[in-house]
Amino acid sequence: MLSYQWDDQALVKKIYNRLRDDGLPVWMDVEGGVKGNINDAMAAGVEEAVVICPFMTPEYQASRSCKKELNYADTRAVLVVPVMLTKNWEASEWLGLITAGLLWVDFRNAEKDEEIFEMCLRSLEEEIMFNVGHLLAVEEAAPREEEEEDEPEPPKPCLKKKPGRGFRHAVSELYIHDSGEQMTPPTTESRNTVELSEAAGDHCYWEEMKGDGCKFYRNVVTNRFLGFDWIRNEVHSEGSPSESEEWLLLVDQTDQSHKRAVIIKHKRSGSFLAVRDGSFLGLTSYDEDCKWFLE
């Protein structure tokens, strides 16, 4: 379900059309979603949705209708994938409360450039599939009409749910990889070694689990949780989660690449997970070594 304020209808309708073309079942009010009483139609849309995408702007936050719609979705525990449209602005009040801790998709420059729009659209599709791909009946992507003979058609995506989140370091291009091997020398906590890998593989995927104001990341192969020892400045994995395995996943708002850049921050220590000279370390302040891409 796409939830938006009317000033952004043209952009949202473009996104709606592309999501439909790529095989995703989508609800939008002006595309047959509203029949009869508008409140009843909005309620029905929320009740049938497995995910709702609020297109966040100051105007969206000020809209009573948008507030009513998203609050109803929140009370029904519909999963929220926020989309940010406004630069240099953060959601607050009721909207900030609902979207706190959620990873939003960056559409702030999507209207200026078609290539940027395509990258933003892919990010939105990937985030939707990551969260609720197992609940959606994804159809085969529809063929697109060619606008110009000389302009090649963009490749159609193959929308499939990935086993978890993959984290690729922006500078070194290395992946976070659970080796499944005990740390050397062994520790009393039965910790395993987490390494950096040049190639993506099953050991590089991490299932995201919600904690108390944090996220846990459990490796899909070893079933061990990604952790950080802020005293030894070491990354490890453990069989069960504790405060060492509590993380915050934040959008990197300094990034201009539109490649789903994120910051991985350790909740307990406040350290930013970084890579330098091919090794993990935790930094007390952000720099480019702290940037990761979701894959």
List keywords for this structure.
295 residues; Rossmann fold; 6-stranded antiparallel beta sheet; 24% helix; Toll_tir_struct_dom_sf; TIR domain-containing protein
Structure description:
Residues 141-165 are annotated as: Disordered. Residues 1-115 form the TIR domain. This is TIR domain-containing protein. With 295 residues, this protein is α+β, with helices and mostly antiparallel strands. It folds into 2 domains: 2-135, Rossmann fold (3-Layer(aba) Sandwich); 165-294, Trefoil (Trefoil (Acidic Fibroblast Growth Factor, subunit A)), CATH 2.80.10. It contains 7 helices and 17 strands. The chain has helices spanning 9-21, 29-33, 38-48, 58-62, 64-75, 93-99, 114-132, and strands at residues 2-3, 51-56, 79-80, 83-84, 105-106, 165-169, 175-182, 192-197, 205-210, 215-219, 225-229, 234-238, 247-251, 261-266, 272-276, 279-283, 291-294. The strands form 4 sheets. It has a 6-stranded antiparallel sheet with strand order 10-9-6-17-14-13, with no helix packed on it. Strands 1, 2, 3, 4 and 5 form a 5-stranded parallel sheet that branches. A hairpin with a 4-residue loop joins strand 9 and strand 10 (215-219). Helix 3 (38-48) packs parallel to helix 5 (64-75). It is elongated, with a radius of gyration of 20 Å. The chain starts with a strand and ends with a strand.
Rounded mean pLDDT score: 91
Strand order of the largest sheet: 10-9-6-17-14-13
State the CATH topology of the largest domain.
Rossmann fold
- Main sheet: strands, sense, barrel: 6 strands, antiparallel
Q: Note the run of SSEs as H and E.
A: EHHHEHHEEHEHEEEEEEEEEEEE
Named CATH architecture of the largest domain: 3-Layer(aba) Sandwich
The number of domains is 2
Radius of gyration: 20 Å
Strand content: 25-35%
Low-confidence stretches: none
Q: Helix count, per DSSP?
A: 7
Structural class: alpha+beta
